[in-house]
Design goal:
Length: 484
């Protein structure tokens, strides 16, 4: 369904995110004819580039990103939509040029996408206001991270909030735009099968894994000030946890969904210093191998000593009736053995076995939601081993592969989210109170780490993380799901 004509103003237009994600996402939306009429993409950055030079840069990246979906005719029409304006985000230069570029915008939807460092969000919004560009209908999109702690998140939210009303602000967590993450909502709320089992009565524990094979490479500068807890857990992993744990919202509506997620964030058991020591493992990768090739360690890439974690595993509890006593084990890391994001729901064992001991072990049911790659849902269950012999039990699985079932291209998360902004639908974006509730929970962990100043546990690149992370779950008589 086509969206209304728009002007997408992308600050940080020459940056990695814009070139790698935003422009390719808009290209795909254009290719699918969702972008209509006189819609424009106005890239903004500090460099004094000509429009042609910018378009050439986009083309170079786009070909690599969209692969076989690239075609010259689509590109030519898409390139016509692209403009470039050089603006100094923290100074005065360029703002009149941006105003002039937007002057003929007419009644189009106006979106400012801030794909910049978060300390520029406030200054850019102030300048937009001073230049008279922030109209009551325009929207602003903020990329994560929103700050580095609660105070800085509040400051950013205040600064942006002084220019834009909350309903104009779209805080992106791109995980919420992933097809498989939205599918969690369908799994839970468009099927009646799971909901009666979705509580401590039937669920033993939940695991959320977001493992990457990449290292920090050129992002070491940013990453070293962040670390895995701020970069991944505060946002992506907690959002996933919310979608798994929240109560059914009244309807698929921006406030109903976000109210329920907020309740989960507020019910997270606070991590006091002893909990931080017993329930969290931090790791940092050393040199090793990734897919058969030698790769340097984090400190080699960074070039100096650092205690920043590139891996974290946590045991988290939700203090409410539904989840009391059900641990949520979360883990995420760079330079792991596999790229895999998945949620594993482990059900309780059968209360009593009717089978003789030699029938074999009865594994508890496990529901795996594969977020990426090989997107799908798998239910592990016990079956009878085929054959005329005695009754022996064997695990098997029901397997739903999205690629095989639907046979369509899996759109990138940004494609959905960028169009949701134009449609004025913030359901899959984070509200201010959610971001701040997540920081409120994360902050004591950061403070304890800082106070103790202990180095993270080393792990060899290309492995599943430090041994202590395995011990974290095995201590409870459980194991990480390693079927990937
Ligand atoms: C980003 C993090 O938000 O998410 C990156 O800053 C991380 O460090 C990325 O690599 C992972 O996203 P995806 O979509 O590749 O799983």
């Amino acid at each position: 369904i086509p969206v209304a004509p728009f002007d997408y103003v992308v600050f940080g237009g020459t940056g990695d995110l814009a070139l790698r994600k935003l422009l390719p996402a808009l290209y795909h939306r254009h290719q699918d004819q969702q972008i209509t009429g006189p819609s424009r993409i106005i890239a903004v950055a500090r460099s004094a580039l000509s429009r042609d030079a910018y378009i050439a840069k986009v083309l170079e990246w786009l070909k690599g990103q969209v692969g076989s979906d690239f075609d010259e005719a689509t590109w030519a029409a898409f390139a016509d939509r692209i403009h470039y304006v050089a603006v100094d985000a923290t100074g005065d230069a360029g703002w009149p040029d941006l105003a002039a570029a937007l002057a003929d915008g007419g009644s189009k939807v106006r979106v400012f996408y801030l794909a910049t460092a978060p300390d520029l969000f406030g200054p850019i919004c102030r300048s937009l206001k001073a230049a008279g560009l922030a109209t009551p209908d325009s929207r602003v999109v903020l990329e994560k991270p929103i700050g580095t702690d609660l105070a800085s998140a509040r400051k950013i939210n205040d600064e942006v909030g002084a220019v834009f009303a909350e309903q104009q602000i779209y805080r992106i967590d791109h995980y919420l735009g992933k097809e498989t993450v939205q599918n969690l909502l369908a799994l839970r709320f468009a099927n009646s099968l799971f909901e009666p089992l979705w509580s401590s009565a039937w669920i033993d524990h939940v695991q959320i894994t977001v493992a990457e094979t990449v290292g920090v490479e050129s992002r070491a500068g940013y990453y070293d000030k962040s670390g895995a807890l701020r970069d991944m857990v505060q946002n992506h992993l907690l959002q996933l946890l919310c979608l798994v744990a929240m109560e059914p919202p009244r309807q698929m509506d921006k406030d109903a969904v976000r109210d329920e997620k907020l309740k989960v964030l507020r019910a997270l058991k606070p991590m006091k210093a002893p909990d931080v020591l017993s329930s969290i493992v931090r790791g940092q990768y050393k040199a090793g191998a990734s897919r058969g090739e030698g790769v340097p360690g984090y400190l080699d890439e960074l070039g100096h000593e650092s205690h920043t974690e590139t891996f974290v595993a946590l045991k988290v509890e939700i203090q409410n009736w539904r989840w009391a006593g059900v641990p949520f084990y979360l883990r995420t890391g760079k330079r792991m053995s596999e790229k895999v994001s998945e949620i594993a729901i482990q059900f309780r064992p059968v209360p009593h076995s009717i089978f003789p001991a030699d029938a074999g072990v009865i594994d508890p049911n496990r529901l795996i939601v594969r977020l990426q790659p090989n997107e799908g849902i798998r239910l592990h269950m016990m079956t009878k081993e085929p054959g005329p012999g005695g009754l022996r039990l064997r695990p098997a699985s029901l397997n739903l592969s999205f690629a095989e079932t639907f046979k369509i291209r899996n759109p990138d998360a940004y494609e959905r989210l960028l169009m949701d902004v134009v449609r004025g639908n913030p359901t899959l974006f984070m509200r201010r109170d959610e971001v701040e509730a997540a920081w409120t929970w994360v902050e004591p962990i950061l403070e304890t780490w800082e106070r103790r100043a202990e180095p993270p546990k080393p792990y060899v690149a290309g492995t599943t993380g430090p041994a202590a992370a395995i011990a974290l779950i095995e201590r409870d008589g459980r194991t990480w799901n390693e079927e990937a």
